[in-house]
Amino acid sequence: MKTVLRLLIIALLIPFCATAQTDDEWPTLSYLRSDYKSVRFVAHVRIREAEIVNKIPGYDNWGISAEVLESFKGKFRKGDVIEYFHGAEAPSRREFFTGEKIVFLLAEYDKEKKRFRYSVLENSTLAPTADRVKKLRMIRRSYAKRR
Q1: 78: Cβ–Cβ under 8 A, 6 or more apart, which residues?
Q2: Phi and psi angles of residue 133, each rounded to the nearest 5 degrees, phi first
Q3: Which of 1, 21, 85, 103 measures 20 to 30 Å from 28, CA to CA?
Q4: Per-residue pLDDT at 22
Q5: Are the beta carbons of 69 and 100 closer than 8 angstroms?
Q6: What are the start-end ranges of the H helices in the chain?
Q7: Nearest Cα to 105, choosing from 58, 5, 35?
Q8: Can you give the pLDDT at residue 33?
Q9: Rounded CA separation 85/93 (Å)
Q10: In the Cβ-directed half-sphere of 120, how many Cα atoms lie within 13 Å?
């Protein structure tokens, strides 16, 4: 009897879990603001090319070329083509690295090549939704007012 009751409770909770995972209002404004503060650049991009440039056991490093559709933070502007690196657990699938994304990019200066090298903040890349773009525009405006 207890097993049947447990299964019934689990069956009733599954739809709520699925709804929470597809919530277009996630992440919260405070979560986005935290990631925004942590990086040098934030942009809505369309990925042009993606290829694995390095592998270590359990991990793939992808080289990404993307066109900026909208910049929320940093020097990149609409139409700029940027290159950055995105690490992923292996085996990773190319489909994840296609289409449009919102990316939060860290910058590290490469002294040998005398240029910046960009990489994504771990677990920050998002699919663009109207709510996320609206929140990022709000964050951008709040930082612009402080200057």
Answers
A1: 68, 69, 70, 71
A2: -65, -40
A3: 85
A4: 53
A5: yes
A6: 2-21, 29-38, 130-146
A7: 35
A8: 96
A9: 15
A10: 23
Give the distance from CA 33 to its chain's centroid. Answer: 13
Find all residues with CB under 8 Å of 126, minimum gap 6, and list them. 27, 101, 102, 132
Regions of the chain with pLDDT less than 50 = 2-21
Helices 29-38/130-146 angle, 10° precision: 60
Torsion of CA 72, 117, 121, 67, to 10 degrees: 40
The pLDDT, as a whole number, for residue 144 is 81
CA angle, 99 as apex, 29 and 135 as ends, to 5°? 15
Confidence at residue 126, expressed as pLDDT on a 0 to 100 scale: 95
Extract the tokens encoding 91. 């085996």
List Cα–Cα distances, 79 to 41, 71, 121, 139, 141, in angstroms: 15, 10, 22, 22, 21
Rounded to 5 degrees, what angle do the CA atoms 49, 134, 130 make? 60
Q: Report the pLDDT value the prediction gives residue 23, as an integer from 0 to 100.
A: 63
Q: What angle do CA 25, 83, 128 make, to 5 degrees?
A: 15
The 10s digit of each residue's pLDDT in 97-132 is 999 999 999 999 999 989 999 999 998 999 999 999
